[in-house]
């Protein structure tokens, strides 16, 4: 069932993005007076097609679902028939270089516009996500040494106000990529607003694609360790623990949240521990002997304890939502370009190059999490698709834009022989990138 969900989510995510991208090319081509011969979703052999409109444009579905294209009337096409006088005026290469630039750039721009629309809708709707209160951290972590303490609520990073965990994570990753110190402002119950600084050296040697916050000791706060349902036949019931008990300590070690309680019981399978609980304002010490799980070896007592972090919902009015969406799209695009640059320079591992298998896996995971999470994933992939198509690689939109930019500067088109050589080099580069992406995908699965 999960496999079917993953495949359907992948097609539902990638299909509309490809269609929207190609519709950008198609719409601007028509506005610029270029005749469109075919609009294809997918590459390779056409498996279904219908012709519509005055120009009898062929709308097709092709065999390979990874991509699509808009075929315009082009005199360079060896299969093109002799052009009528009317068609000569509507041939792609006869248009001004600025119109050709607009047609080629329209695809990636359409992806950015789609991301802005999706993010704006989500920001108006409101996104429920963990807040920025932090969990207690170890004294050896970089966060502790910088001055952070459990219970602090981070309200700004490098002067930028934040209200949700994703915003905190984003700002920290951006600073780590730029190798900058991270200035944190927190609200502390006993002191009010105070500031701390995480030095850039705290992130040296860490993979930006990994959990940077966790690596320096920052994790989201969890609820107090209050016991929920006590399952029958377990160690909790046998020991006399009750629903509503607030766990204070285990063997004298303070327990601040549900995760800490689970971590304290894990190594205690088959061994009695002293659990101090607060029950209705009275303190009790209860001996508990966790059962040892035969598979994992961890201790368990068969009692529910709250683990989900406190959620906050950040919503905006229409104008503010659009502004936030534009900034989010710009920042995500800039981050993608930075990551590509870091990979080229060797500062970031090439393992971060992902392909269709990983995208499909994430599509399935986010679809199972809910509509909001899936829409965030679609918007993020749309941005990546736009950025990747703008890379100056021949056969991509960015390569064509490079050709036309040179034409603007020199006043004449790129010689056909050079363009043909560049096309071959671009195809070879794309094949190598795809091979690397698929290799990384398979390595992750294994």
From TrEMBL:
It is an enzyme of class 3 (hydrolase). Its cofactor is Zn(2+). Residues 183-266 form the PDZ domain. Keywords: Hydrolase, Membrane, Metal-binding, Metalloprotease, Protease, Transmembrane, Transmembrane helix, Zinc. PROSITE patterns: PDZ (PS50106). GO terms for molecular function: metallopeptidase activity. Its EC number is 3.4.24.-. Gene3D superfamilies: 2.30.42.10. Its main location: membrane. It is a multi-pass membrane protein. This is Zinc metalloprotease. It comes from Massilia soli. The gene is rseP.
């Amino acid at each position: 069932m999960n496999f079917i969900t993953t495949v359907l989510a992948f097609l539902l995510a990638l299909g509309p993005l490809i269609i929207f991208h190609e519709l950008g090319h198609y719409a601007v081509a028509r506005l610029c007076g270029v005749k469109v011969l075919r609009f294809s979703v997918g590459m390779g052999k056409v498996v279904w097609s219908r012709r519509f409109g005055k120009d009898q444009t062929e709308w097709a579905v092709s065999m390979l679902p990874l991509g699509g294209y808009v075929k315009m009337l082009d005199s360079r096409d060896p299969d093109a028939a002799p052009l009528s006088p009317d068609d000569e005026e509507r041939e792609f290469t006869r248009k001004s270089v600025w119109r050709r630039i607009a047609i080629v750039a329209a695809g990636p721009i359409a992806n950015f516009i789609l991301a802005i629309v999706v993010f704006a809708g989500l920001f108006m709707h409101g996104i429920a996500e963990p807040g920025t209160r932090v969990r207690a951290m170890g004294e050896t972590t970089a966060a502790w040494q910088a001055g952070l303490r459990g219970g602090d609520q981070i309200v700004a990073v490098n002067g930028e106000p934040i209200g949700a965990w994703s915003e905190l994570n984003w700002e920290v990753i951006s600073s780590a990529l730029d190798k900058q110190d991270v200035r944190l402002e927190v609200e502390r119950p006993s002191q009010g607003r105070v500031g701390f600084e995480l030095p850039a050296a705290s992130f040296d040697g860490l993979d930006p694609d990994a959990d940077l916050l966790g690596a320096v000791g920052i994790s989201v706060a969890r609820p107090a360790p209050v016991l929920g349902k006590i399952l029958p036949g377990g160690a909790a019931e046998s020991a006399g623990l009750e629903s509503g008990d607030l766990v204070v300590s285990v063997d004298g070690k303070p327990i601040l949240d549900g995760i800490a309680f689970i971590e304290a019981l894990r190594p205690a399978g088959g061994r009695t521990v002293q659990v101090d609980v607060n029950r209705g304002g009275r303190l009790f010490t209860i001996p508990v002997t966790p059962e040892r799980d035969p598979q994992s070896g961890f201790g368990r007592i068969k009692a529910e304890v709250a683990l989900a972090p406190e959620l906050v919902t950040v919503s905006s009015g229409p104008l503010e939502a659009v502004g936030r969406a534009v900034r989010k799209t710009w920042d995500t695009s800039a981050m993608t370009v930075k990551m590509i640059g870091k990979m080229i320079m060797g500062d970031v591992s090439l393992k971060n190059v992902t392909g269709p298998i990983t995208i499909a896996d994430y599509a399935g995971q986010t679809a199972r999490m809910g509509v909001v999470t899936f829409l965030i994933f679609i918007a993020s992939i749309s941005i990546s698709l736009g950025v990747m198509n703008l890379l100056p690689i021949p056969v991509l939109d960015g390569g064509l834009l490079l050709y036309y930019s040179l034409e603007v500067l020199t006043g004449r088109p790129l010689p056909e022989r050079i363009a043909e050589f560049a096309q071959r080099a671009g195809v070879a580069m794309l094949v190598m990138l795809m091979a690397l992406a698929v290799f990384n995908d398979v390595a992750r699965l294994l």
